[in-house]
Amino acid sequence: MNFLLLQINDTLFPIGSYTHSFGLESYVQLGKIKNKYDARDYLKAYLHTQMLYTDLLAIKLIRKAHCLEEIFEIESIIAAATSAREVLNAIRKLGLRFIKTINAIKLEQKAFFTAYTQTSKNPIYVVAYSVFCVAYGLNYQDSLCHYLYAQSSQALTNCVKLIPLAQSDGQEILASLHKEFDILCQKLECLKKQDLCNNAIANEIKAMQHQYLPTRLYMS
Predict the structure, then answer these.
(1) Model confidence over 112-166: pLDDT tens digits?
(2) Are 197 and 53 in contact (CB under 8 A)?
């Protein structure tokens, strides 16, 4: 068991992800997600678009990257494809907080991760996470699955708070997604760099609308 991987994916790892809904709050306030069935459908769509084509594919590509220049290109593509200003700010803030927290826990320094943190002008969370996993020799499949589960659990927690749902409903939904996790990992094997950020336009629009909501619980 790699406890370091568990630690950096824990919801208590203090990078501030709990303050962002990434467009989910817009869906709820506009009446598009009203119950546990809507929440499950939303999460499945989110996993098969944003999560698969951006986050998971980025982890895969960075694992295979040969140099920092390739990684910075991936980072720039993600930034350019993130149309919603609040979401772009969010993934950069999470990236900075991730790096800051890693430095604070005083692990043995790895040259590759240090070079990335000192060179990247606007680190993005999934990129910083991926570089960290590579630099510290964390197993690729474990790094991928831990990240997938942690991000899904966080999105589900936001659903439970916003709709709201019973905690048991949330756990029921999460259990129903286990098969989807396996499907996503299988789909990922066939994806290439040209597939990066092939996202869902509807979610981008809802993320843009978030800043205009009359009341908000989340920053994005």
Answers:
(1) 999 999 999 999 999 999 999 999 999 999 999 999 999 999 999 999 999 999 9
(2) yes
Angstrom CA distances, 162 to 124, 158, 194, 219, stand at 26, 6, 35, 13
What's the CATH number for 35-211? 1.10.4190.10
Q: What is the pTM of this model?
A: 0.95
Q: Is 99 exposed, middle or buried (0-12, 13-18, 19+ CB in 10 A)?
A: buried
Q: Give the model confidence (pLDDT) of 64-115 as tens digits.
A: 998 999 999 999 999 999 999 999 999 999 999 999 999 999 899 999 999 9
